[in-house]
Write a structure and sequence with these properties.
- The chain is α/β, with parallel strands linked by helices.
- It is about 35% helix and about 25% strand.
- It contains 14 helices and 15 strands.
- A hairpin with a 2-residue loop joins β14 and β15.
Length: about 400
């Protein structure tokens, strides 16, 4: 098998303190990475690098792990431009929110949904994302949820069943009946395509008891829980996520001291995944990443890419927002967008650049990862390797 050495790396982020300077980022200056097939074979100082069959000159630029986007909603049709324009213009708008996307998604063909998914995946890859999770949740019928997951599963291992996004419009007068559907026939149809089960635990969506029933049923079917928790208001989502040992509590915008303490105590089990694109796009209160990190919680960053509340696929943009508005340092934000996302997906083979890890790397047109926050909006990702293959 052909080996490739990426040489002349000014600054390499490994996310392995034992390999580098002892910091969480495991920085190595003047580094080389050797790729063998789909995996990283060697990492270290350039003057100690083994021979390789081929080489790529990084020309004094920085290399980081590929971003791990652990929360997105990419199987959908249409967009909600009018809704966003009205919100940003201070006008009221009542076209239906998620229900608008549900109608468009139900009306779309499989080919149209897959083409849209692939377009967004390519867009994310060009910005350095090499691992992504995505959800159903815009079909809300047995057939539409199952086809969304089937389409997603053809393109990622990280597929989440989110039949419990909102109560289906078809069950507006019978939310209990919809919960029965989500935990019964719909779950049976969807579980074969999914790894995760999720629920939007929020006023106007599903309360704590409903969320518990949905997550428990999903776990009984072999799916691992994750929770949309405490995005719009204080509520039971975070505590439920910790209690059920969910992999991630996502959003975490409105937290009590007890919520923060619970996430800190569960730092090895339940990750607090923050989604600053949603707050940016809705002019909402920012999550307090500093509070969570200082308490000892594990924090991930993700895009929440969806057509309504966070229509961005850019992890670098989310890093810049986290540093500017969520009180994260550039080092913390990058770790959370790579290793943190991997933790939220319970993965050890991505989000790091270590021997044996998947060879997912991004080359920045900059000498340091700090430029991701220092130069917001600039397309700094100039090359991407995914499973050892040059993808960008």
């Amino acid at each position: 098998m052909t080996t490739t050495a990426i040489t002349n790396i000014a600054s390499l982020v490994t996310n392995d303190p034992a390999l580098g300077d002892g910091s969480p980022l495991g920085l190595i200056q003047n580094a080389t990475v050797v790729i063998d097939g789909e995996t990283v074979a060697w990492v270290g100082p350039a003057d100690k690098a083994p021979a390789a069959d081929e080489s790529f000159d990084a020309a004094g630029r920085a290399v980081i792990p590929g971003f791990v986007d652990s929360h997105s909603h990419l199987v959908f049709a249409g967009d909600r431009t009018a809704e966003f324009n009205a919100r940003m213009s201070g006008r009221s708008y009542s076209a239906g929110g998620i229900r608008t996307t549900v109608a468009a998604t139900r009306a779309a063909s499989d080919a149209e949904l897959e083409a849209n998914l692939l377009r967004h995946l390519d867009e994310a890859r060009r910005q350095g994302t090499t691992t992504f999770e995505t959800k159903s949740g815009y079909g809300l019928t047995v057939a539409d949820e199952a086809r969304a997951l089937r389409i997603a599963a053809a393109h990622t291992e990280e597929v989440t069943y989110l039949g419990a996004h909102i109560v289906s419009p078809d069950y507006a007068e019978d939310p209990a009946g919809y919960v029965d559907l989500v935990t019964g026939e719909m779950l049976t149809a969807c579980a074969p395509y999914a790894r995760w089960v999720d629920v939007f635990c929020e006023k106007g969506a599903f309360d704590g008891d409903q969320a518990r029933a949905i997550l428990t049923a999903g776990a009984a079917a072999g799916l691992i829980p994750r929770v949309h928790a405490n995005q719009l208001s204080y509520g039971p989502g975070v505590q439920l996520a910790v209690e059920l040992e969910a992999a991630s509590a996502d959003h975490c915008t409105h937290l009590t001291d007890a919520d923060v303490d619970a996430l800190a105590q569960a730092a090895d089990t339940t990750v607090a995944t923050l989604l600053p694109g949603a707050e940016f796009s809705t002019r909402a209160q920012w999550p307090d990443a500093r509070r969570l990190i200082d308490a000892g919680a594990t924090v991930a960053l993700s895009t929440d890419c969806n057509p309504g509340s966070s229509y961005t696929s850019s992890m670098p943009f989310c890093i810049a927002l986290a540093v500017r508005d969520m009180r994260m340092t550039p080092d913390e934000a990058l770790w959370s967008a790579t290793a943190g996302g991997a933790r939220a997906l319970r993965r050890t083979d991505v989000g790091v650049v270590t021997p044996g890890a998947r060879a997912d790397l991004a080359l920045l047109d900059a000498p340091s990862h700090v430029h991701l926050a220092y130069r917001p909006g600039v397309p700094l990702v100039s090359a991407v390797w995914q499973r050892g293959v040059r993808a960008v």
